[in-house]
């Protein structure tokens, strides 16, 4: 067992929809954590479940055991989509921090009329009762930064202040992992996301 | 200072193979195993042969041939792939190997992306072969060089069995050295080893049975098993593979004094189990899927006259289905000792819409299924197969899915049973090459009057876009022969073979009509690249848009089920979102000409 675990323990859950870039978001954090000397375990959704389905990534900083966060064990949830925040709430501890992108993605079950998408305001109200809620439209912020595709990096920026990983390490990791041509946009997206939480 | 890298479990496994000096790797894609070969194929400094084989049986035999020449080889597959490779596998036990041979079989508890949740440890028992069961990605990497050594020492193939959370887990990984010098191949003509005539097979059966105990003894001493006895502890916990880290964390959190045996190899280390049983009153066994360890523990206790109470799956303390986690361990403890551990709180009362995976916007399978259904109707029977297109269950054209290649043979069986309804089955290009070919040959040979649709999206899509014999390049991108599906079907004697572009509805439906009317086995090849790999290869199409003036709100396009089409309830009008990939199928479905290409 390595002795590097300890005070810097943090369990983070990233939820969203297949295709939103949840894996890249967790990779940015994971790579930065390793560079900063933290041990890390993560669990991801691959394969069939990825095709536009609901996805959840577990990220555990400062642990050398399993990658699965226990129920009510996550300190923070980063939800790339509002309904997907609610789907995995039983992993978040009471009073935990929840950062939510308020931009919904309508599943085919809803557009074909088989199910209803819950009211986003209602979701946010319910979340704010039990948790420390930070909600904003990250798709719009990504658009401001230069591309809607940078939404996942806006969200990484938003959670960055809570992580036991220096901002510089995260930014280096953003630069290393996004496509070369989009580095500038993604760095801006990160900064916008981070500032958005600092100022809230 | 050691080098640490953040890696996917399967990348760590790939690294472990390299550190073990692997020279030949073959496999067939299957979640959660696919990225092992993807990772090795993408390395620049390759000094090994790597291939995607056409199926797991073939892959295993390629690895066997290499290992019999004395070099180290590995074969990768998902758990159900071992069923396909079971034929060589069960006799490989008898022949054994010269060079180290690792059979990597990734299990998928909870069926995240699988049709069943079989436990490969059972195959290890069945075949009398050792099995390695890693508990973390780091351990997975570290086990592999050891597994090669072990395989060579005892001259037997070994099973290496990660599960989804190892293969698709990520971790900081401490890297080791990759050996530079590797042996040259030399096939020794040991006929009593490599020719399984009955006379040789009998002798080899005796041999494999005779080394069971020595193998178990060697494994018990390995670093992959460890026993921590706590003095005075009345509770003992046995954790196997990944379940051991869940149990360990739960015990740490609770601050519970328990003796702990971590198991990472099979046959199980009986000596260590006995030591634990002798010191505790109760043993809780925590392992995913089948009660493999538990059965062994009960046998050991019975043989040694030990009366400790043994709790696990057979007594329903731990579930025999699905993945385990820390909560499952706490639940088992609660049940066993009536403990008062905080349970989950009430959930939010919000009703959520389900979000199952769906075919991508512009996926050609949806278009093919649409035309198929139009022509064959609700009355027809639609056997299907394994791939992204199994999601066509939402189109009403997937009515059976059993195993790779089964669609055509099941269709044949339905026909020969005397079903009078039309039968139209669907199978992907890679699945067709895998085992569908045999089924088609059989259908033609035995005169099944069915229509076979090959959904040729030019790639093995669901597992992450691996090449197959139809695409014209190998796993490393090297050009190779591009096998023609149409010529292949004709050569097998199919009387009616038509290649269509499924994006063209009229043409496709005409072809389906002809195929439906054909007496005998007919084949439709719906050819159109996967939208994901097509986009990566540079295919760009103009997206479509709805003219709200012309849209009558009839929802025909909505019913098509494309994720890029939504309905604006306020304006009673369909809208096409930025997900549109420009396939143009909805424009052909619209009766009011309301859907057109976006004007630049």
Write up this protein.
The complex is a heterodimer of chains A (200) and B (600). Chain A has one domain (10-104, 118-198): Pyruvate-ferredoxin Oxidoreductase, domain 3 (3-Layer(aba) Sandwich), CATH 3.40.920.10. Chain A is globular and about 50 Å long. Chain A has helices at 22-35, 82-87, 108-111, 120-130, 138-145, 151-160, 167-177, 183-198, and strands at 10-17, 40-43, 54-61, 74-79, 92-101, 132-136. In chain A, 40% of the residues lie in helices and 20% in strands. With 200 residues, chain A is α/β, with parallel strands linked by helices. In chain A, 56% of the residues are buried. In chain A, helix 2 links the parallel strand 4 (74-79) and strand 5 (92-101). In chain B, strand 6, helix 7 and strand 7 (158-160) form a beta-alpha-beta unit. The radius of gyration of chain B is 27 Å and the shape is globular. Chain B starts with a strand and ends with a strand. The mean pLDDT of chain B is 96. Strand 2 (40-43) of chain A pairs antiparallel with strand 8 (169-174) of chain B, so a sheet runs across the interface.
Task: Compile the SSE list and pairings.
The complex is a heterodimer of chains A (200) and B (600).
Chain A (H helix, E strand, L loop, with lengths): L9 E8 L4 H14 L4 E4 L10 E8 L12 E6 L2 H6 L4 E10 L6 H4 L8 H11 L1 E5 L1 H8 L5 H10 L6 H11 L5 H16 L2
Helix pairs in contact in A: 1-6, 1-7, 5-6, 5-8, 6-8
Chain B lengths: L3 E5 H11 L4 E4 L7 H7 L7 E4 L3 H13 L4 E6 L2 H4 L1 H10 L5 E6 L13 H8 L3 E2 L4 H18 L3 E3 L3 H4 L1 E6 L16 H4 L3 H13 L1 H9 L5 E3 L6 E6 L1 H13 L4 E5 L1 E2 L3 H10 L2 E5 L5 H13 L4 E3 L14 H12 L26 H13 L29 H11 L7 E5 H17 L5 E6 L28 H7 L4 E5 L4 H13 L4 E6 L3 H6 L7 E3 L9 H4 L5 E4 L4 E4 L8 H5 L5 E3 L3
Helix pairs in contact in B: 1-2, 1-7, 3-5, 5-10, 12-15, 13-14, 16-20, 17-18
């Amino acid at each position: 067992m390595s002795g590097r675990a300890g005070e810097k323990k943090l369990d983070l859950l990233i939820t969203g929809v297949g295709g939103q870039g949840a894996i890249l978001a967790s990779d940015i954090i994971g790579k930065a954590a390793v560079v900063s000397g933290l041990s890390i375990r993560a669990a991801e959704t691959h394969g069939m479940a990825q095709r536009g389905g609901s996805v959840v990534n577990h990220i555990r900083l400062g642990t050398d055991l399993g990658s699965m966060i226990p129920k009510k064990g996550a300190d923070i949830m980063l939800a790339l989509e509002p309904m997907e925040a609610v789907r995995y709430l039983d992993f978040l501890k009471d009073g935990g921090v929840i950062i939510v992108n308020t931009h919904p993605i309508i599943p085919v079950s809803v557009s074909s009329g088989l199910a209803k998408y819950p009211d986003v305001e209602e979701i946010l109200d319910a979340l704010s009762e039990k948790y420390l809620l930070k909600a904003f439209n990250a798709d719009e912020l990504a658009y401001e930064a230069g591309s809607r595709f940078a939404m996942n990096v806006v969200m990484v920026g938003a959670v960055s202040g809570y992580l036991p990983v220096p901002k510089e390490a995260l930014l280096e990791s953003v630069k290393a992992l996004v496509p070369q041509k989009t580095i500038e946009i993604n760095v801006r997206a990160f900064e916008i996301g981070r500032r958005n939480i600092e100022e809230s | 200072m050691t080098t640490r890298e953040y890696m996917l479990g399967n990348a760590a496994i790939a690294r472990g193979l390299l550190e073990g000096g692997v020279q030949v790797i073959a496999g067939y894609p299957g979640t959660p195993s696919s990225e092992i070969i993807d990772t090795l194929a993408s390395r620049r400094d390759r000094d090994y042969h790597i291939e995607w084989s056409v199926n797991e049986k073939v892959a295993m035999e390629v690895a066997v041939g290499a290992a019999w020449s004395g070099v180290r080889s590995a074969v990768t597959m998902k758990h159900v792939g071992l069923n396909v490779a079971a034929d060589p596998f069960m006799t490989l036990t008898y022949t054994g190997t010269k060079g180290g041979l690792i059979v990597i079989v990734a299990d998928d508890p909870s069926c995240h992306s699988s049709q069943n949740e079989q436990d490969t440890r059972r195959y290890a028992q069945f075949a009398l072969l050792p099995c390695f069961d890693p508990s973390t990605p780091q351990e997975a990497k570290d086990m592999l060089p050891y597994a090669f050594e072990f395989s060579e020492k005892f001259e037997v193939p070994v099973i290496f069995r990660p599960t989804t959370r190892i293969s698709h887990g990520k971790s900081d990984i401490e890297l080791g050295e990759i050996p530079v010098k590797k042996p040259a191949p030399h096939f020794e003509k040991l006929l009593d080893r490599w020719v399984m005539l009955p006379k040789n097979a009998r002798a080899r059966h005796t041999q494999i049975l005779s080394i069971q105990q020595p193998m178990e003894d060697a494994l018990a001493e390995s670093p992959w098993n460890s026993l921590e006895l706590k003095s005075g502890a009345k509770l003992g916990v046995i954790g196997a593979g990944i379940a051991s880290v869940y149990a360990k964390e739960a015990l740490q959190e609770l601050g519970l004094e328990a003796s702990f045996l971590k198991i990472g190899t099979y046959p199980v280390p009986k000596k260590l189990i006995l030591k634990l049983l002798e010191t505790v009153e109760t043993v809780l066994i925590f392992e995913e899927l089948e009660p493999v360890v538990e059965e062994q523990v009960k046998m050991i206790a019975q043989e040694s006259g030990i009366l400790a109470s043994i709790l696990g799956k057979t007594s329903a303390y731990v579930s025999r289905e699905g993945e385990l986690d820390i909560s499952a361990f706490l639940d088992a403890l609660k049940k066993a000792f009536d403990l008062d551990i905080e349970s989950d709180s009430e959930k939010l009362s919000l009703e959520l819409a389900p979000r199952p995976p769906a075919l991508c916007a512009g996926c050609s399978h949806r278009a093919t299924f649409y035309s198929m259904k139009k022509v064959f109707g609700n009355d027809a029977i639609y056997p299907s197969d394994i791939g992204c297109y199994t999601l066509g269950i939402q189109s009403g054209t997937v009515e059976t899915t059993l195993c790779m290649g089964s669609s055509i043979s099941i269709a044949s069986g339905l026909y020969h049973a005397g079903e009078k309804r039309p039968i139209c089955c669907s199978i992907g290009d890679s699945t067709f090459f895998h085992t569908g070919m045999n089924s088609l040959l059989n259908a033609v040979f035995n005169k099944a009057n069915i229509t076979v649709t090959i959904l040729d999206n030019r790639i093995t899509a669901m597992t992450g876009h691996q090449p197959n014999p139809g695409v014209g390049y190998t796993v490393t991108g090297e050009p190779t022969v591009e096998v023609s599906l149409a010529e292949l079907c004709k050569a097998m004697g199919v009387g009616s073979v038509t290649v269509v572009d499924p994006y063209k509805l009229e043409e496709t439906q005409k072809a389906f009509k002809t195929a439906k009317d054909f007496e005998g086995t007919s084949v439709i090849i719906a050819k159109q690249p996967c939208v994901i790999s097509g986009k990566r290869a540079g295919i760009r199409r103009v997206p479509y848009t709805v003219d709200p003036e012309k849209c009558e709100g009839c929802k025909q396009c909505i019913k098509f089920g494309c994720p890029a089409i939504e309905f604006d309830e306020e304006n009673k009008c369909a809208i096409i979102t930025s997900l549109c990939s420009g396939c143009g199928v909805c424009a052909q479905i619209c009766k009011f000409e309301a859907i057109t290409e976006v004007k630049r």
